[in-house]
Amino acid sequence: MAASKPNILIIQVDQLAALALPCYGHPVTKTPHMDALADDGVIFDNAYCNNPLCAPSRFSMLSGQHTSKIGAYDNGAEFPADIPTFAHYLRANGYRTTLCGKMHFVGADQLHGFEERLTTDVYPADHGWAPDWERPDHRFDWWYHNMDSVYQAGPCERTNQIDFDDEVGFLAERHIYDLARARTRARKSPEDGNGDDRPFCLTVSFTHPHDPYACPKEHWDRYDHEKIDPPRVGHIAYDRCDPHSRRLRQACKMGRGEIDGEYVRNARHAYYGQISYVDDKIGRILKALEHAGLRENTVIILTADHGDMLGERGLWYKMSFHEWSVRVPLIVSGPDFFQPRRIAAPVSLVDLLPTLLELSADPHAQNPADELDGKSLAPLLRGEADDFERPVISEYLGEGAVAPMIMVRKGGYKYIHCPADPPLLFDLETDPDELENLAPNSAYRDACLEFETIVAQHQDLNALHDQILKSQKRRRLVFKAHMTGKHTSWDFQPIQDASQKYMRNHLDLNDVEHCARIASRT
Question: Among the listed ranges 57-66, 289-298, 333-342, 493-502, which one has the minimum average pLDDT value?
Fold first, then answer.
Protein backbone atom coordinates (compact mmCIF):
# COMPACT_ATOMS: atom_id res chain seq x y z
CA MET A 1 0.00 0.00 0.00
CA ALA A 2 1.10 3.53 -0.70
CA ALA A 3 2.33 5.49 2.27
CA SER A 4 -0.28 8.25 1.91
CA LYS A 5 -4.00 7.78 2.22
CA PRO A 6 -5.41 6.83 -1.17
CA ASN A 7 -8.03 8.85 -2.95
CA ILE A 8 -11.24 6.88 -3.43
CA LEU A 9 -13.55 7.03 -6.44
CA ILE A 10 -16.76 5.03 -6.10
CA ILE A 11 -18.79 4.61 -9.29
CA GLN A 12 -22.23 3.16 -8.72
CA VAL A 13 -24.73 2.34 -11.45
CA ASP A 14 -28.39 1.56 -10.95
CA GLN A 15 -29.94 -1.83 -11.70
CA LEU A 16 -26.89 -3.29 -13.43
CA ALA A 17 -26.79 -7.08 -13.25
CA ALA A 18 -23.30 -8.52 -12.93
CA LEU A 19 -24.25 -11.21 -15.42
CA ALA A 20 -24.89 -8.52 -18.06
CA LEU A 21 -21.21 -7.47 -18.22
CA PRO A 22 -18.47 -8.96 -20.43
CA CYS A 23 -16.10 -9.32 -17.47
CA TYR A 24 -18.70 -11.60 -15.88
CA GLY A 25 -19.12 -13.62 -19.06
CA HIS A 26 -21.80 -11.83 -21.05
CA PRO A 27 -21.29 -12.41 -24.80
CA VAL A 28 -23.07 -9.35 -26.23
CA THR A 29 -22.65 -6.16 -24.20
CA LYS A 30 -19.90 -3.68 -25.06
CA THR A 31 -18.18 -1.97 -22.13
CA PRO A 32 -14.56 -1.12 -22.98
CA HIS A 33 -14.07 1.25 -20.04
CA MET A 34 -15.51 -1.11 -17.44
CA ASP A 35 -13.45 -3.86 -19.06
CA ALA A 36 -10.32 -1.75 -18.57
CA LEU A 37 -11.08 -1.40 -14.88
CA ALA A 38 -11.62 -5.15 -14.66
CA ASP A 39 -8.38 -5.89 -16.52
CA ASP A 40 -6.22 -4.11 -13.92
CA GLY A 41 -8.54 -4.67 -10.97
CA VAL A 42 -9.78 -7.22 -8.49
CA ILE A 43 -13.06 -8.79 -9.66
CA PHE A 44 -15.44 -10.25 -7.09
CA ASP A 45 -17.30 -12.99 -8.93
CA ASN A 46 -19.97 -13.49 -6.27
CA ALA A 47 -20.88 -10.08 -4.90
CA TYR A 48 -24.43 -9.46 -3.68
CA CYS A 49 -26.51 -6.49 -2.72
CA ASN A 50 -28.04 -6.71 0.74
CA ASN A 51 -31.49 -5.74 -0.45
CA PRO A 52 -32.58 -5.93 -4.12
CA LEU A 53 -34.26 -2.52 -4.09
CA CYS A 54 -32.72 0.90 -4.74
CA ALA A 55 -32.91 2.87 -1.49
CA PRO A 56 -32.50 0.01 1.02
CA SER A 57 -29.53 -1.36 -0.90
CA ARG A 58 -27.78 1.99 -0.86
CA PHE A 59 -28.50 2.64 2.81
CA SER A 60 -27.05 -0.73 3.82
CA MET A 61 -24.00 -0.15 1.61
CA LEU A 62 -23.38 3.30 3.08
CA SER A 63 -23.82 2.17 6.68
CA GLY A 64 -22.31 -1.32 6.56
CA GLN A 65 -25.49 -2.58 8.26
CA HIS A 66 -28.47 -4.63 7.14
CA THR A 67 -31.64 -2.76 6.33
CA SER A 68 -33.68 -4.55 9.03
CA LYS A 69 -31.31 -3.17 11.67
CA ILE A 70 -31.52 0.48 10.56
CA GLY A 71 -35.22 0.52 9.56
CA ALA A 72 -34.50 1.07 5.85
CA TYR A 73 -37.19 -1.34 4.74
CA ASP A 74 -38.19 -0.01 1.32
CA ASN A 75 -37.97 2.95 -1.10
CA GLY A 76 -40.16 5.10 1.16
CA ALA A 77 -38.31 4.44 4.42
CA GLU A 78 -36.19 7.15 6.00
CA PHE A 79 -32.45 6.70 6.33
CA PRO A 80 -31.83 7.84 9.93
CA ALA A 81 -29.48 10.83 10.14
CA ASP A 82 -27.63 9.43 13.17
CA ILE A 83 -26.44 6.29 11.35
CA PRO A 84 -22.76 6.81 10.44
CA THR A 85 -21.95 6.22 6.77
CA PHE A 86 -18.60 5.74 5.11
CA ALA A 87 -18.84 9.44 4.20
CA HIS A 88 -19.02 10.35 7.91
CA TYR A 89 -16.05 8.16 8.79
CA LEU A 90 -13.86 9.29 5.91
CA ARG A 91 -14.72 12.95 6.40
CA ALA A 92 -13.83 12.73 10.09
CA ASN A 93 -10.57 11.08 8.99
CA GLY A 94 -9.56 14.04 6.85
CA TYR A 95 -11.16 13.18 3.51
CA ARG A 96 -13.02 15.55 1.24
CA THR A 97 -16.27 13.67 0.60
CA THR A 98 -18.45 14.44 -2.42
CA LEU A 99 -21.62 12.88 -3.82
CA CYS A 100 -22.52 13.37 -7.47
CA GLY A 101 -25.74 11.74 -8.65
CA LYS A 102 -28.38 9.44 -7.27
CA MET A 103 -28.43 8.04 -3.75
CA HIS A 104 -32.19 7.91 -3.10
CA PHE A 105 -31.95 9.40 0.39
CA VAL A 106 -35.35 9.51 2.09
CA GLY A 107 -35.79 12.13 4.80
CA ALA A 108 -34.66 15.65 5.63
CA ASP A 109 -30.95 14.74 5.73
CA GLN A 110 -29.86 14.69 2.11
CA LEU A 111 -26.11 14.60 2.77
CA HIS A 112 -25.46 11.80 5.28
CA GLY A 113 -21.85 12.73 5.81
CA PHE A 114 -21.02 14.04 2.34
CA GLU A 115 -19.42 17.47 2.57
CA GLU A 116 -20.58 18.37 -0.92
CA ARG A 117 -23.41 17.19 -3.13
CA LEU A 118 -23.28 18.31 -6.75
CA THR A 119 -26.73 17.32 -8.06
CA THR A 120 -30.25 16.79 -6.85
CA ASP A 121 -31.64 13.26 -6.87
CA VAL A 122 -33.64 11.69 -9.64
CA TYR A 123 -36.21 10.27 -7.18
CA PRO A 124 -38.30 11.87 -4.40
CA ALA A 125 -37.03 12.13 -0.84
CA ASP A 126 -40.39 11.68 0.92
CA HIS A 127 -42.41 8.71 2.21
CA GLY A 128 -44.63 8.53 -0.87
CA TRP A 129 -43.36 5.10 -1.90
CA ALA A 130 -44.23 3.32 1.33
CA PRO A 131 -45.89 -0.03 0.53
CA ASP A 132 -48.83 -1.52 2.41
CA TRP A 133 -48.45 -5.21 3.23
CA GLU A 134 -51.98 -5.24 4.59
CA ARG A 135 -53.20 -4.42 1.06
CA PRO A 136 -50.93 -6.57 -1.14
CA ASP A 137 -52.74 -5.54 -4.36
CA HIS A 138 -52.27 -1.83 -3.65
CA ARG A 139 -49.95 0.17 -5.92
CA PHE A 140 -48.70 3.50 -4.56
CA ASP A 141 -47.98 4.90 -8.05
CA TRP A 142 -49.70 4.02 -11.31
CA TRP A 143 -46.43 4.27 -13.27
CA TYR A 144 -44.19 2.37 -10.88
CA HIS A 145 -42.79 -0.78 -12.53
CA ASN A 146 -45.52 -1.54 -14.99
CA MET A 147 -44.77 -3.31 -18.23
CA ASP A 148 -44.97 -0.20 -20.40
CA SER A 149 -41.19 0.04 -20.05
CA VAL A 150 -40.92 -3.34 -21.81
CA TYR A 151 -43.63 -2.82 -24.41
CA GLN A 152 -42.32 0.65 -25.31
CA ALA A 153 -38.60 -0.20 -25.18
CA GLY A 154 -36.30 1.14 -27.86
CA PRO A 155 -34.12 4.07 -28.94
CA CYS A 156 -35.13 7.59 -27.94
CA GLU A 157 -33.92 11.16 -28.11
CA ARG A 158 -34.27 12.15 -24.44
CA THR A 159 -35.61 10.86 -21.17
CA ASN A 160 -35.44 12.42 -17.72
CA GLN A 161 -32.90 9.72 -16.86
CA ILE A 162 -30.65 10.76 -19.75
CA ASP A 163 -30.98 14.40 -18.67
CA PHE A 164 -30.00 13.41 -15.15
CA ASP A 165 -27.03 11.22 -16.05
CA ASP A 166 -25.70 13.76 -18.55
CA GLU A 167 -25.58 16.23 -15.67
CA VAL A 168 -24.02 13.69 -13.32
CA GLY A 169 -21.29 12.82 -15.80
CA PHE A 170 -20.44 16.43 -16.60
CA LEU A 171 -20.33 17.60 -12.97
CA ALA A 172 -18.25 14.58 -11.93
CA GLU A 173 -15.65 15.35 -14.61
CA ARG A 174 -15.53 19.00 -13.66
CA HIS A 175 -15.25 18.18 -9.98
CA ILE A 176 -12.22 15.99 -10.64
CA TYR A 177 -10.49 18.95 -12.27
CA ASP A 178 -11.62 21.16 -9.37
CA LEU A 179 -9.97 18.72 -6.98
CA ALA A 180 -6.72 19.01 -8.94
CA ARG A 181 -6.98 22.81 -9.01
CA ALA A 182 -7.48 22.87 -5.24
CA ARG A 183 -4.37 20.75 -4.74
CA THR A 184 -2.32 23.00 -7.01
CA ARG A 185 -3.47 26.05 -5.08
CA ALA A 186 -2.65 24.38 -1.74
CA ARG A 187 0.90 23.70 -2.93
CA LYS A 188 1.59 26.96 -4.72
CA SER A 189 -0.21 29.38 -2.42
CA PRO A 190 -0.63 27.72 0.97
CA GLU A 191 -0.75 31.09 2.70
CA ASP A 192 -4.10 32.13 1.17
CA GLY A 193 -5.91 29.18 2.77
CA ASN A 194 -8.08 28.59 -0.30
CA GLY A 195 -6.45 25.38 -1.42
CA ASP A 196 -7.36 21.85 -0.40
CA ASP A 197 -4.88 19.00 -0.49
CA ARG A 198 -6.95 16.48 1.48
CA PRO A 199 -7.44 13.03 -0.01
CA PHE A 200 -10.86 12.74 -1.59
CA CYS A 201 -13.71 10.27 -1.66
CA LEU A 202 -15.87 11.01 -4.70
CA THR A 203 -19.02 8.93 -5.16
CA VAL A 204 -20.52 9.15 -8.65
CA SER A 205 -23.89 7.44 -9.00
CA PHE A 206 -25.73 7.05 -12.32
CA THR A 207 -29.40 6.11 -12.68
CA HIS A 208 -28.88 4.03 -15.85
CA PRO A 209 -29.46 1.25 -16.87
CA HIS A 210 -32.58 1.40 -14.67
CA ASP A 211 -35.87 0.96 -16.51
CA PRO A 212 -37.58 2.35 -18.58
CA TYR A 213 -35.62 0.52 -21.24
CA ALA A 214 -34.80 3.45 -23.51
CA CYS A 215 -31.39 4.57 -24.73
CA PRO A 216 -29.98 7.13 -27.17
CA LYS A 217 -30.01 5.92 -30.78
CA GLU A 218 -26.23 6.18 -30.84
CA HIS A 219 -25.99 3.44 -28.23
CA TRP A 220 -28.86 1.39 -29.65
CA ASP A 221 -27.00 1.32 -32.99
CA ARG A 222 -23.91 -0.23 -31.40
CA TYR A 223 -25.75 -3.54 -31.27
CA ASP A 224 -27.05 -5.81 -34.01
CA HIS A 225 -30.68 -6.38 -33.10
CA GLU A 226 -30.62 -9.92 -34.47
CA LYS A 227 -27.73 -10.81 -32.17
CA ILE A 228 -29.44 -9.74 -28.96
CA ASP A 229 -29.47 -12.88 -26.85
CA PRO A 230 -32.70 -14.19 -25.30
CA PRO A 231 -32.94 -14.89 -21.55
CA ARG A 232 -30.92 -17.90 -20.43
CA VAL A 233 -34.02 -19.20 -18.65
CA GLY A 234 -37.17 -18.45 -20.54
CA HIS A 235 -40.70 -17.87 -19.35
CA ILE A 236 -41.78 -20.15 -16.49
CA ALA A 237 -45.48 -20.95 -16.33
CA TYR A 238 -47.25 -19.01 -13.60
CA ASP A 239 -48.41 -22.09 -11.71
CA ARG A 240 -44.80 -23.41 -11.65
CA CYS A 241 -43.35 -20.24 -10.15
CA ASP A 242 -42.43 -19.88 -6.51
CA PRO A 243 -44.95 -17.75 -4.53
CA HIS A 244 -42.82 -14.60 -4.46
CA SER A 245 -42.26 -14.70 -8.23
CA ARG A 246 -46.03 -14.93 -8.65
CA ARG A 247 -46.48 -11.93 -6.37
CA LEU A 248 -43.90 -9.95 -8.36
CA ARG A 249 -45.74 -10.70 -11.58
CA GLN A 250 -48.86 -9.22 -10.06
CA ALA A 251 -47.08 -6.27 -8.41
CA CYS A 252 -45.38 -5.29 -11.68
CA LYS A 253 -48.43 -5.95 -13.85
CA MET A 254 -46.69 -8.73 -15.79
CA GLY A 255 -49.75 -10.92 -15.81
CA ARG A 256 -49.69 -14.69 -16.05
CA GLY A 257 -48.95 -15.10 -19.73
CA GLU A 258 -45.72 -15.03 -21.70
CA ILE A 259 -44.49 -11.77 -23.23
CA ASP A 260 -43.92 -11.80 -26.97
CA GLY A 261 -40.28 -12.49 -27.77
CA GLU A 262 -39.81 -9.33 -29.81
CA TYR A 263 -40.77 -7.15 -26.84
CA VAL A 264 -38.24 -9.06 -24.76
CA ARG A 265 -35.54 -8.55 -27.40
CA ASN A 266 -36.29 -4.82 -27.70
CA ALA A 267 -36.04 -4.34 -23.93
CA ARG A 268 -32.79 -6.29 -23.67
CA HIS A 269 -31.38 -4.38 -26.67
CA ALA A 270 -32.22 -1.05 -25.03
CA TYR A 271 -30.79 -2.23 -21.69
CA TYR A 272 -27.51 -3.13 -23.41
CA GLY A 273 -27.52 0.31 -25.04
CA GLN A 274 -28.03 1.90 -21.64
CA ILE A 275 -25.05 -0.05 -20.31
CA SER A 276 -22.90 1.29 -23.15
CA TYR A 277 -24.21 4.80 -22.47
CA VAL A 278 -23.06 4.53 -18.84
CA ASP A 279 -19.77 3.00 -19.95
CA ASP A 280 -19.08 6.08 -22.08
CA LYS A 281 -19.69 8.27 -19.02
CA ILE A 282 -17.32 6.14 -16.97
CA GLY A 283 -14.70 6.45 -19.69
CA ARG A 284 -14.83 10.24 -19.56
CA ILE A 285 -14.51 10.22 -15.76
CA LEU A 286 -11.49 7.92 -15.93
CA LYS A 287 -9.96 10.13 -18.60
CA ALA A 288 -10.45 13.21 -16.41
CA LEU A 289 -8.85 11.40 -13.48
CA GLU A 290 -5.85 10.51 -15.62
CA HIS A 291 -5.48 13.96 -17.18
CA ALA A 292 -5.77 15.65 -13.80
CA GLY A 293 -2.86 13.56 -12.53
CA LEU A 294 -4.96 11.88 -9.83
CA ARG A 295 -5.15 8.30 -11.06
CA GLU A 296 -1.93 7.04 -9.55
CA ASN A 297 -3.01 7.26 -5.92
CA THR A 298 -6.71 6.54 -6.41
CA VAL A 299 -8.59 3.34 -5.64
CA ILE A 300 -11.60 2.99 -7.97
CA ILE A 301 -14.59 0.89 -6.92
CA LEU A 302 -17.25 0.00 -9.49
CA THR A 303 -20.53 -1.53 -8.33
CA ALA A 304 -24.33 -1.36 -8.58
CA ASP A 305 -27.18 -1.23 -6.09
CA HIS A 306 -28.84 -4.37 -7.52
CA GLY A 307 -29.44 -6.11 -10.82
CA ASP A 308 -32.33 -6.62 -13.25
CA MET A 309 -34.08 -9.88 -14.09
CA LEU A 310 -34.35 -8.64 -17.71
CA GLY A 311 -36.87 -11.28 -18.74
CA GLU A 312 -35.09 -14.19 -17.05
CA ARG A 313 -37.72 -16.68 -15.82
CA GLY A 314 -40.32 -14.28 -17.23
CA LEU A 315 -39.46 -11.68 -14.55
CA TRP A 316 -38.35 -8.05 -14.89
CA TYR A 317 -36.75 -5.39 -12.72
CA LYS A 318 -35.44 -6.44 -9.28
CA MET A 319 -37.06 -7.31 -5.91
CA SER A 320 -36.09 -10.96 -6.38
CA PHE A 321 -33.35 -13.11 -4.85
CA HIS A 322 -32.59 -14.83 -8.15
CA GLU A 323 -29.07 -14.14 -9.43
CA TRP A 324 -29.88 -11.58 -12.13
CA SER A 325 -31.60 -9.42 -9.52
CA VAL A 326 -29.47 -9.78 -6.40
CA ARG A 327 -25.95 -10.28 -7.77
CA VAL A 328 -23.98 -7.13 -8.56
CA PRO A 329 -20.66 -6.23 -10.15
CA LEU A 330 -17.90 -5.37 -7.72
CA ILE A 331 -14.55 -4.37 -9.21
CA VAL A 332 -11.78 -2.69 -7.24
CA SER A 333 -9.09 -1.12 -9.39
CA GLY A 334 -5.93 0.11 -7.73
CA PRO A 335 -2.82 -0.95 -9.69
CA ASP A 336 -0.55 0.73 -7.14
CA PHE A 337 -2.28 -1.10 -4.31
CA PHE A 338 -3.51 -4.51 -5.51
CA GLN A 339 -2.61 -7.11 -8.11
CA PRO A 340 -5.34 -7.99 -10.63
CA ARG A 341 -7.17 -11.17 -9.71
CA ARG A 342 -10.58 -12.80 -9.45
CA ILE A 343 -12.12 -13.70 -6.11
CA ALA A 344 -14.77 -16.40 -5.87
CA ALA A 345 -15.65 -15.87 -2.20
CA PRO A 346 -19.23 -14.58 -1.69
CA VAL A 347 -19.20 -10.96 -0.48
CA SER A 348 -21.76 -8.18 -0.26
CA LEU A 349 -22.13 -4.41 -0.27
CA VAL A 350 -22.14 -4.11 3.53
CA ASP A 351 -18.47 -5.07 3.25
CA LEU A 352 -17.70 -1.76 1.55
CA LEU A 353 -17.67 0.47 4.65
CA PRO A 354 -15.24 -1.65 6.73
CA THR A 355 -13.08 -2.03 3.62
CA LEU A 356 -12.89 1.74 3.16
CA LEU A 357 -12.05 2.21 6.84
CA GLU A 358 -9.08 -0.13 6.52
CA LEU A 359 -7.85 1.22 3.19
CA SER A 360 -7.99 4.79 4.47
CA ALA A 361 -6.25 3.92 7.77
CA ASP A 362 -9.29 5.19 9.63
CA PRO A 363 -8.78 5.14 13.41
CA HIS A 364 -12.28 3.66 13.76
CA ALA A 365 -11.42 0.62 11.62
CA GLN A 366 -11.12 -1.65 14.64
CA ASN A 367 -13.79 0.05 16.75
CA PRO A 368 -16.52 1.63 14.61
CA ALA A 369 -19.36 3.57 16.20
CA ASP A 370 -21.87 0.85 15.26
CA GLU A 371 -21.56 -2.91 15.21
CA LEU A 372 -21.09 -3.50 11.50
CA ASP A 373 -22.59 -6.39 9.55
CA GLY A 374 -19.88 -6.28 6.90
CA LYS A 375 -16.28 -7.41 6.93
CA SER A 376 -13.27 -5.68 5.39
CA LEU A 377 -12.33 -7.05 1.99
CA ALA A 378 -8.77 -5.71 2.31
CA PRO A 379 -7.24 -9.17 3.05
CA LEU A 380 -8.87 -10.51 -0.11
CA LEU A 381 -7.76 -7.50 -2.12
CA ARG A 382 -4.18 -7.87 -0.95
CA GLY A 383 -4.08 -11.61 -1.58
CA GLU A 384 -3.68 -12.38 2.11
CA ALA A 385 -6.82 -14.58 2.12
CA ASP A 386 -8.94 -16.41 -0.41
CA ASP A 387 -12.24 -16.76 1.43
CA PHE A 388 -14.30 -15.76 4.45
CA GLU A 389 -15.96 -18.28 6.73
CA ARG A 390 -19.22 -16.41 7.01
CA PRO A 391 -22.59 -16.40 5.25
CA VAL A 392 -23.68 -13.50 3.03
CA ILE A 393 -27.18 -12.26 3.83
CA SER A 394 -29.63 -10.23 1.78
CA GLU A 395 -33.08 -9.07 2.86
CA TYR A 396 -36.20 -8.03 1.00
CA LEU A 397 -38.83 -6.07 2.91
CA GLY A 398 -40.54 -4.01 0.22
CA GLU A 399 -43.44 -4.06 -2.21
CA GLY A 400 -44.44 -7.43 -3.62
CA ALA A 401 -43.59 -9.14 -0.34
CA VAL A 402 -46.12 -10.00 2.36
CA ALA A 403 -43.59 -10.92 5.06
CA PRO A 404 -39.83 -10.49 5.61
CA MET A 405 -37.68 -12.40 3.14
CA ILE A 406 -34.10 -13.48 3.81
CA MET A 407 -31.51 -14.89 1.41
CA VAL A 408 -28.40 -16.65 2.68
CA ARG A 409 -25.45 -17.44 0.42
CA LYS A 410 -22.90 -19.76 1.97
CA GLY A 411 -20.35 -21.66 -0.05
CA GLY A 412 -22.01 -22.83 -3.24
CA TYR A 413 -25.53 -22.82 -1.81
CA LYS A 414 -28.23 -20.17 -1.75
CA TYR A 415 -31.15 -20.47 0.67
CA ILE A 416 -34.27 -18.28 0.54
CA HIS A 417 -36.58 -18.07 3.54
CA CYS A 418 -39.94 -16.34 4.03
CA PRO A 419 -42.43 -17.26 6.77
CA ALA A 420 -45.23 -17.06 4.18
CA ASP A 421 -43.58 -19.34 1.60
CA PRO A 422 -41.93 -22.75 1.29
CA PRO A 423 -38.12 -22.52 1.45
CA LEU A 424 -35.88 -22.53 -1.62
CA LEU A 425 -32.41 -24.07 -1.77
CA PHE A 426 -30.16 -23.95 -4.82
CA ASP A 427 -26.73 -25.40 -5.52
CA LEU A 428 -25.25 -22.61 -7.62
CA GLU A 429 -22.19 -24.63 -8.56
CA THR A 430 -24.16 -27.36 -10.31
CA ASP A 431 -27.31 -25.35 -11.03
CA PRO A 432 -26.31 -21.71 -11.72
CA ASP A 433 -29.69 -20.99 -13.33
CA GLU A 434 -31.54 -21.99 -10.15
CA LEU A 435 -33.86 -24.48 -11.82
CA GLU A 436 -33.97 -27.18 -9.12
CA ASN A 437 -35.22 -26.39 -5.63
CA LEU A 438 -33.41 -28.83 -3.32
CA ALA A 439 -35.28 -27.88 -0.14
CA PRO A 440 -37.97 -30.59 -0.47
CA ASN A 441 -35.28 -33.24 -0.99
CA SER A 442 -34.71 -35.19 2.24
CA ALA A 443 -31.02 -35.51 1.40
CA TYR A 444 -30.67 -31.74 2.06
CA ARG A 445 -32.60 -31.68 5.34
CA ASP A 446 -29.51 -31.00 7.45
CA ALA A 447 -28.38 -28.23 5.10
CA CYS A 448 -31.80 -26.57 5.36
CA LEU A 449 -31.70 -26.81 9.17
CA GLU A 450 -28.30 -25.12 9.18
CA PHE A 451 -29.62 -22.29 7.03
CA GLU A 452 -32.71 -21.98 9.23
CA THR A 453 -30.42 -21.49 12.20
CA ILE A 454 -28.55 -18.72 10.37
CA VAL A 455 -31.85 -16.98 9.57
CA ALA A 456 -33.06 -17.27 13.18
CA GLN A 457 -29.79 -15.84 14.48
CA HIS A 458 -29.97 -12.99 12.00
CA GLN A 459 -33.42 -11.67 12.89
CA ASP A 460 -36.60 -12.42 14.81
CA LEU A 461 -38.81 -12.34 11.73
CA ASN A 462 -42.10 -12.18 13.64
CA ALA A 463 -40.96 -9.10 15.54
CA LEU A 464 -39.51 -7.61 12.34
CA HIS A 465 -42.82 -8.16 10.53
CA ASP A 466 -44.65 -6.24 13.23
CA GLN A 467 -42.11 -3.39 13.10
CA ILE A 468 -42.48 -3.11 9.32
CA LEU A 469 -46.27 -2.94 9.44
CA LYS A 470 -46.13 -0.20 12.08
CA SER A 471 -43.53 1.72 10.08
CA GLN A 472 -45.60 1.51 6.90
CA LYS A 473 -48.68 2.81 8.72
CA ARG A 474 -46.79 5.73 10.29
CA ARG A 475 -45.18 6.75 7.02
CA ARG A 476 -48.40 6.68 5.05
CA LEU A 477 -49.95 9.06 7.58
CA VAL A 478 -46.93 11.38 7.57
CA PHE A 479 -46.91 11.49 3.77
CA LYS A 480 -50.62 12.26 3.61
CA ALA A 481 -50.11 15.14 6.04
CA HIS A 482 -47.09 16.51 4.13
CA MET A 483 -49.08 16.51 0.89
CA THR A 484 -51.98 18.42 2.47
CA GLY A 485 -51.83 22.21 2.36
CA LYS A 486 -48.44 23.86 1.92
CA HIS A 487 -45.84 21.37 0.70
CA THR A 488 -42.26 21.59 1.97
CA SER A 489 -39.93 19.43 -0.06
CA TRP A 490 -37.03 17.42 1.31
CA ASP A 491 -35.51 17.04 -2.17
CA PHE A 492 -31.92 18.27 -2.33
CA GLN A 493 -31.41 21.62 -4.05
CA PRO A 494 -27.82 22.17 -5.26
CA ILE A 495 -26.45 25.64 -4.64
CA GLN A 496 -24.70 26.98 -7.72
CA ASP A 497 -22.81 30.14 -6.73
CA ALA A 498 -21.98 31.74 -10.08
CA SER A 499 -20.22 34.63 -8.33
CA GLN A 500 -17.19 32.39 -7.71
CA LYS A 501 -16.90 30.93 -11.21
CA TYR A 502 -15.28 31.96 -14.46
CA MET A 503 -14.16 35.63 -14.66
CA ARG A 504 -15.25 38.03 -11.89
CA ASN A 505 -13.82 41.45 -11.00
CA HIS A 506 -13.31 40.67 -7.30
CA LEU A 507 -10.96 37.76 -8.10
CA ASP A 508 -7.24 38.46 -8.11
CA LEU A 509 -4.86 37.18 -10.78
CA ASN A 510 -4.06 33.98 -8.91
CA ASP A 511 -7.77 33.24 -8.42
CA VAL A 512 -8.42 33.64 -12.13
CA GLU A 513 -5.42 31.52 -13.05
CA HIS A 514 -6.42 28.68 -10.74
CA CYS A 515 -10.04 28.78 -11.88
CA ALA A 516 -9.18 28.99 -15.55
CA ARG A 517 -6.67 26.23 -16.00
CA ILE A 518 -5.09 23.20 -14.45
CA ALA A 519 -1.48 22.21 -15.00
CA SER A 520 -1.02 18.98 -16.92
CA ARG A 521 -0.53 15.99 -14.58
CA THR A 522 -0.85 18.06 -11.43
Answer: 493-502
